[in-house]
Amino acid sequence: MISSIMKWALAKVPRPLLIRLSYLVQWVAPVLFKGSRFVDPIDGRGYSRFFPYGYGPNQRENALCPGTNSLERHRLLWLYLKDYTDFLTKPQKLLHIAPEQCFYGRFKKMKHLDYTTADLFSPLADLRFDVQNIPLEDDTYDTIFCNHVLEHVDDDQQAMRELRRILKPGGLAIMQVPLDPDYAKTDEDPSIKDPAERERRFRQYDHVRLYGQDYPERLTAAGFKVTIFDAAKELPAESFSKYALPKRELLYVWPPNNTPETAHDSGGERKRTLIVSLAHRETAPWAGILVSVMQFAVISTNLQSSVAFSLLPLEPIKDQLEYDHCAHQS
User: Which of 23, 97, 158, 258 is 20 to 30 A from 17 in CA distance terms?
Assistant: First the structure.
C-alpha cells in the first residue's frame, strides 16, 4: 500500500506541493511517530518508523525520516561530520551548493559558520552560478558541500576542477553522487535529451550519467586526493539499524586519519580533504513525505488544510521551496 502511494506521488504530485506538505509533516512527525525503533542523529529524536523511499524497483524500506526529511546518506554524513571532523564546532567558511532540506536550516543557524548558499536557478541563493564556471577566487572556502549535483552537469570534470580551485588547502569537500557499485565505469552521455531515455539509462529523467567504481579516479584526475572511509568498519554495527544507515556506503577521504588538515606531497602540491559518497541511486527527500502526510490525515481527519497551512512558517517554506524546486539535486 505504502509503496503504491509512493510511486503515485513521485509520478503525479507536483514537487512544490510536496515540499509545502513536508513542513507540516516535520512539525507533527516527532509527536505522531515518536518511538524508539529508529533515531535520526540529525535531530536526535526517536521514531517508531521511517518511510520507504525511491523510484520504482529502487524503493528502499526505512529510508526517509518524516521529522527531518533525511535519507540514509544524509544521516551517515551527519554522523561523519559529528564524530570524525570538527565541522560542528570550528569557525569556517562554508559554501553549500544546492542545499539539502535536512541541513539547510540547521547550518543557517550555526553561529560558527560563515554560511553561503549557491544554486544555478534559485533567486533566494546567496550566489547563483554554474559549477562548471564558478566566479570566485582561488582558495576561498574552508568547506564545500555539493551533493547530488555532478550527475546533472555536462562536464563534471570541469566542475570538479572548479570546486577544487576554490577550496582552501586542507579544506573539506563533500560531493555525494548517485553511484552503482556494480558498474566498473561511469555510464554517461550528455547528448541524450529525452527524459524517458535518461531515466532508463541513468535512472532519473534529468541525469546525464550514472557513476561507477571509477568515481574516485575521476576526482583524482581533477586534483583531489582520496582514501576510503568505510562506515561498515568504522561505525558500531548497531548504528546501521539504529539510524537506518546504508550498508554499502563508502566515504572517500583525505587525509587517511579522517581529520581535515593541510598537507603537501613531495612536489609541494596542495592537498584538499575530499569526502564523496558511493551510494545507491537516491533522489531528493521531498517525495516520500506524502506517505506520512496521508497517515497524518487519517489520524486527524478534522484538520482542515487551510488551518494546517496557516500554521506553517512561511519564510522557511518559501526559502526551501525555491531551493528544492530549482536546485540540481537528485
Answer: 97
